[in-house]
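Data deposition worksheet. Section B asks for the primary sequence of the deposited chain exactly as it was used as input, without tags or linkers unless they were present during the calculation. Section C holds the resulting structure in token form. Section D is free text for depositor observations; keep each observation to a single sentence. Incomplete worksheets are returned to the depositor.
Section A, Depositor: J.P.
Section B:
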Amino acid sequence: MMDRNPIVKRIKNKVYDFYYRSFDKRDRVIQYLKWWLQQKKDSNLSKVYFHGTKQEFFDQVKCYDIISFDIFDTLITRCIQKPVDIFSILGYWVEKTYHIKSEKFFDARIKAESNENRRLNGNATLNDIYNVLRQKLGLNVAQCNIIKQKELAIESEYLIPRKEMVEVLKKLKLHGKKIWLISDMYLSEDTIKSFLEKCGINHSFYDEIYISSETQKRKDSSAIWMEIAEKCKEKKYVHIGDNLVSDYMNPKNVNIDSILIKNAWNSYKNSLIRYCKKIDSYDKLGDRITKGLIFNKCLYNSPFSTEKNLFIYAYAFFGPLFFQFCVWLYNKTQEDCIDDIWFFAREGYYLKPLYDFFYEKMNEEKSSKNTRYVLTSRKAAAIADMDSLASIKDYLLNGDFVGTLDELLEIRFGISGKTNNETIYSLPRDFDLVISVLNLYKNTIYKNAYRQKKLYQSYVTSIDQDYKNKHIGIVDIGYSGTAQYHLSNVLEKKFVGYYFALSNNVRPKKNNQKCYACFFKCKESQPDLNPWMLIESVLTAPYGQFGGFQKDGSYIFATDDTNNVKKNLDEFFYGIKLFFNDMYKLMTPEQIKKQNFSKGLALDLLKSFYWGNINVSKNIQKIFEVETAFNGGSKKFKVL
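Section C:
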């Protein structure tokens, strides 16, 4: 009779999993209630925002002679969470260059602007602010000018257009409308014009520009609106902006038509995403830049009703997680003095080139020469490691199974044939019965295992003759590390495992191997598998699971019914790669290596996607499917 402890352990894990999912459902309900209460609270405000498509917006404003636009957060926006984050980023540079603590600089910069605006009735200029800052920080004029120019450079670097708003502006101009731009801002008119030019709005697309630092008349005080109301008495005039008071209420108070649009953060604050766990609370530098990219550049760049596509989902919900995994893998393998990194099939098919791209950017375009894509799977590695009844028993308990004996032999052991046994077996329930039946086939299993082991050793030698003398790390999605465990036995070689997530049943430790999880190491039960199955569904290859070798050494791949919907994965990983690129533009390699990120942010974003906090079309949902042939029965599992 078998030892019942593994079954007891499985039952415990299922109980733990039940409670885990119960808490998960509770969190979803709490999230929805918080969102619903916020919606009720903001119901009146929501009514004044424009709701509709880009064409509907154009049709509404094209009847006016003069259309003015607010600039910041209406036409252009920053790839950061808050405008003051620019001062934090500048503070890092100031600390490195002039040895002034970044926190001290940040506080001084905020106070200098606030005090000067109070002194000058809100009309402080950048020069006014830096004159105060120079005295406060004990800087000389040259140093102060250098820091001021650096601030402008960082501001420009982080600015992007709100593309659909810019398209509307240009279309209106082509229709012969007069376009005015208006902003309450301490920057000079020339500086703002250069920012607009950088974002694709050159002087030919607007007729006049009003900047409070130049006119000394602000929107928030209504001074500029009173002047414009007098100037445009005989014209049909409308103003468009994102600020409830400055851009909407104040113009209306002087009989100027106005339209209020949502900026990215208005949209975020009214979304379910905000209430998923702690997204608001993550506040490291990388977190703020990540949120700026996701909400300002990606999800809510447009204030109009638009349908999201696969590219956007990849960028916003998967990009941060893959980026943080690559940061962690880079630092951890450096720390562990790893010579080579093996990316296991099929997860490594897209993950290896993504990591190579990351490595090149982190090392000034020097290519990564120590990564390999290695064909393996828990099935192929386990079959080659099947040399005793104990190993067969251990293997059968690695995952549930429902099917006939023929299916079990084919799917789990790679042995084809007709046994004429039509009984349906269920593991682990029928474990003893299955073992007694397999006893008739154990010699065939051992013979096949020996051949697979030799072919495996030959395959690995063909890709790296010196692998036994190297300190090698392997990369896989995780759970129990089964492939690492068996491959170590087959190759008689110890590895170090690097995973997205691990369960409490870490198998490589049984043969004295090390393994680490980037995001999740569960002590009581399996990690919540469904979010990780999202990752597994996209970390795949254009062929089925690797099943081992033919007698001539050629490869065996299972048929994968999910691959007919994975034709869009190139687009998916292009979205992730673009997120990587944007992070490199906005953070230095040094800042990235210091791991200025909260892992919880990436996890909560992924969970928000899994929870359905953004509408995903059924066509796109089909992409998130996982092959489950290893467990018998159905060949696919739909994650969403």
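Section D:
Residues 523-527 have pLDDT under 50 and may be disordered.
Residues 5-41 form the longest helix (37 residues).
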